[in-house]
């Protein structure tokens, strides 16, 4: 690499990093010079010069310069760029590329805007890589890719050709180009119009992303150089050192060095623009690469900025991320929020895990809430672990506050929670019962407080009877049934609820209270009295009958009379007091007593509606002829025809059922008979293990060649024929030939 000083007839090369240099005088005018990319190596002493001709200078073995003309006749050569074996240059007509390895010119890219003077708007050239040349001229940029030609297409053509892969127009005139990864750095000469006057503005250094037919602007900076209002497009140049991200902007009076921004520069810019959140995010993402900034300091600057804006909630939320495990910073921030009256904002973000602040900090915040916000205080007590603060001190403070407002529900509930954490469950239970709080049952179960509620059963049931009874029944081993009944003796309506659920769970467990339950059901729950009487086997029937008769409970009295054996009196009550023939018929069907049917017919014979009911339902239990013969002649009976038709239909149905049953019976009998016959006719296995039941010898002879006879009964007993007393006693004989 070298810095080239260009003068007519003299070429001087100075090494930037070595002492190697080069100085030669030439006898022709030289405008531009391009060295071989590996000029510093002794084997590559080559360079080209441009003026009216493009000349290649090579040292021969005598260390003299050999000159070759590569191109001439198209005006002054204004720019030369050499990369590997490819030399690109620009003259008044366009851009050419020469392949020094094959000594062939491989392309000619013509100038787009011929109206521009080439000496005022010179061409800018740069190699992006060994195969891609970027050409900028006027407001046009082209990206030219050098490609190998297919061998079948060679003929007289060069082995390489150029394809323009991207071409687009820019807003301003191009003074210089340089590659930056897959992007481009462009130096623009800017002209602007104002009030119909054209003036020169500051040059711009842009980074663009080339596309196929356009480009996308990535960044743009206006450069402050001296006398920019007097400069032309040709007065600016952009140079870059390959392998380094340094770019040199050259103007007549200034040289500006540009370099890629690092993350520290980006964070500086964000902080200058007061974009603290983005700066903090950038620092967190690149914390390993930043050198001049600290993530926590940026975070503190962000928090300070939010506090100054009055956005206290966001500032408090950011403390979690920024302050992290630094307890000293946490305490400083808490005191700052106290000073500005915003303790509530930071309260929900304080550390509450393994790392925590001093208890005094949490107590200070709790006292602040206790003075101004009962609901917020209660929320903190629920959310904060009790070990964060001195529980007794907070209980005392709540007690002092309750002296001013002794019935405040939120304060009382919070005090109960504090008592619970302090394991003073009796005090918490008293408050919950007083408030009828839903958590009272959970507290009792969780801390096994059944011994403490033996004298508070009435309070629990007044609060929620169903939950209280379920809890008492689920824990009979801790609070006995006798104890519960004793506590509820003065509250019979609650006692009934308890005993009713006990009976539903187990009909025998509370049998000693069944007599008392009769009166309780009669008083508070008559719909369940009859089911109770049906299911209970420990209920005194006389006592139950007495209570039901006193209260004129007919259905219950009927049931008790029938259960005590007085069915005729029960039927009489149904007929006389209920007047319900259907119920009377159901009762008679249930008892299945011919005398009851006779009583029912006798009572109904002079009551046409009852006769209709009997005719409709009696056919399957009593011969309807008995009823029909006793009906007085001339009596009007509602729906008699329909009733008689139903009797006939029922009779026909019975006949059909009987015939069907008979057929089924005959078929089943025949099937079973055939099965029995097949079973009895089936052969019986006889082998060496069977013995004669008379002589106890093996049933089969040792010589199977001799004929023998064996008798086998259906009971599977076997005999030799000769062992039986006489052949006349044998009903069945099975002979097995040898």
Concise overview:
Residues 690-728 form the Vps41 C-terminal RING finger domain. The protein has 738 residues and is an alpha+beta fold.
Dominant shape: elongated
Average pLDDT works out at 82
Structure annotation, total helices? 26
Percent range for helical residues?
Answer: 40-55%
The largest sheet is: 4 strands, antiparallel
Strand content: 15-25%
Question: Would you count the extended β strands for me?
Answer: 26
Biggest sheet: strands side by side, in what order? Answer: 4-5-6-7
Radius of gyration: 58 Å
**What is the end-to-end distance?**
123 Å
Which class of secondary structure composition applies to the elements? alpha+beta
| Uncertain residue ranges | 1-8, 729-738
Subcellular location: Endosome membrane; Late endosome membrane; Early endosome membrane; Lysosome membrane
GO molecular function: zinc ion binding
InterPro entries: Beta-prop_Vps41, Clathrin_H-chain/VPS_repeat, TPR-like_helical_dom_sf, Vps41, Vps41/Vps8, WD40_repeat_dom_sf, Znf_RING_Vps41
Pfam families: Beta-prop_Vps41, TPR_Vps41, zf-RING_Vps41
């Amino acid at each position: 690499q070298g810095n080239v000083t260009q003068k007519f007839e003299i070429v001087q090369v100075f090494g930037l990093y070595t002492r190697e240099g080069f100085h030669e005088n030439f006898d022709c005018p030289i405008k531009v010079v391009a060295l071989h990319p590996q000029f510093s190596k002794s084997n590559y002493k080559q360079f080209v010069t441009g003026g009216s001709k493009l000349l290649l200078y090579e040292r021969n073995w005598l260390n003299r310069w050999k000159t070759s003309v590569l191109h001439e006749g198209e005006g002054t050569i204004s720019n030369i760029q050499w990369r590997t074996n490819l030399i690109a240059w620009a003259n008044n007509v366009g851009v050419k590329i020469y392949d020094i390895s094959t000594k062939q010119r491989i392309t000619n890219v013509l100038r787009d805007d011929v109206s521009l003077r080439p000496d005022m708007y010179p061409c800018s050239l740069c190699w992006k890589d060994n195969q891609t040349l970027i050409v900028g001229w006027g407001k046009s940029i082209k990206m030219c890719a050098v490609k190998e030609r297919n061998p079948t297409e060679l003929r007289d053509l060069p082995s390489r050709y150029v394809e323009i892969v991207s071409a687009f127009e820019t807003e301003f005139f191009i003074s210089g180009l340089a590659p930056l990864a897959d992007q481009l750095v462009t130096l623009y000469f800017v002209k602007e119009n104002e009030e119909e006057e054209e003036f020169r503005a500051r040059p711009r250094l842009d980074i663009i992303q080339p596309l196929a037919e356009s480009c996308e602007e990535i960044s743009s900076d206006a450069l402050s150089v001296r006398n920019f209002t007097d400069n032309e497009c040709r007065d600016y140049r952009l140079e870059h050192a390959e392998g380094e991200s340094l770019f040199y902007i050259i103007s007549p009076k200034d040289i500006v060095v540009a370099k890629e921004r690092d993350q520290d520069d980006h964070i500086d810019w964000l902080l200058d623009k007061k974009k603290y959140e983005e700066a903090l995010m950038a620092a967190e993402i690149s914390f390993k690469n930043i050198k001049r900034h600290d993530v926590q300091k940026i975070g503190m600057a962000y928090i300070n900025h939010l506090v100054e804006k009055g956005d206290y909630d966001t500032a408090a939320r950011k403390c979690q991320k920024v302050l992290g495990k630094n307890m000293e910073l946490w305490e400083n921030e808490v005191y700052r929020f106290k000073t500005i009256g915003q303790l509530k904002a930071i309260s929900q973000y304080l550390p509450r895990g393994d790392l925590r602040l001093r208890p005094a900090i949490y107590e200070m915040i709790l006292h602040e809430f206790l003075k101004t916000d009962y609901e917020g205080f209660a929320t903190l007590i629920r959310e904060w672990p009790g070990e964060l603060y001195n529980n007794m001190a907070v209980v005392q403070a709540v007690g002092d506050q309750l002296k001013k407002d002794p019935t405040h529900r939120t304060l009382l509930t919070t005090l109960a929670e504090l008592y619970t954490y302090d394991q003073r469950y009796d005090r918490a239970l008293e408050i919950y019962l007083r408030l009828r709080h839903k958590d009272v049952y959970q507290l009792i179960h969780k801390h096994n407080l059944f011994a403490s509620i033996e004298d508070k059963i009435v309070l629990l049931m007044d609060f929620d009877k169903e939950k209280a009874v379920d809890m008492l029944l689920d824990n009979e081993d801790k609070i006995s049934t006798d104890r519960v009944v004793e506590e509820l003796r003065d509250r019979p309506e609650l006692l009934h609820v308890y005993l009713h659920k006990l009976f539903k769970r187990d009909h025998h467990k509370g049998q000693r209270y069944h007599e008392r339950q009769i009166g309780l059901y009669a008083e508070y729950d008559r719909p369940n009295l009859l089911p109770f009487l049906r299911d209970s086997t420990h209920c005194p029937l006389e006592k139950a009958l007495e209570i039901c008769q006193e209260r004129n409970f007919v259905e219950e009295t009927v049931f008790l009379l029938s259960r005590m054996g007085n069915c005729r009196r029960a039927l009489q009550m149904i007929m006389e007091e209920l007047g319900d023939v259907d119920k009377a018929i159901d009762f008679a069907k249930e008892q299945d007593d011919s005398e009851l049917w006779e009583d029912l017919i006798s009572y109904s014979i002079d009551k046409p509606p009852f006769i209709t009911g009997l005719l409709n339902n009696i056919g399957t239990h009593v011969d309807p002829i008995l009823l029909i013969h006793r009906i007085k002649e001339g009596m009007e009976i509602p729906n008699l025809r329909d009733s008689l038709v139903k009797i006939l239909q029922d009779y026909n149905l019975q006949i059909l059922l009987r015939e069907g049953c008979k057929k089924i019976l005959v078929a089943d009998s025949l099937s079973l008979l055939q099965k029995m016959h097949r079973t009895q006719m089936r052969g019986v296995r006889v082998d060496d293990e069977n013995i004669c039941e008379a002589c106890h010898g093996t049933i089969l002879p040792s010589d199977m060649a001799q004929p023998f006879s064996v008798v086998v009964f259906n009971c599977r007993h076997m005999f030799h024929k000769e062992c039986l007393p006489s052949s006349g006693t044998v009903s069945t004989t099975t002979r097995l030939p040898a």
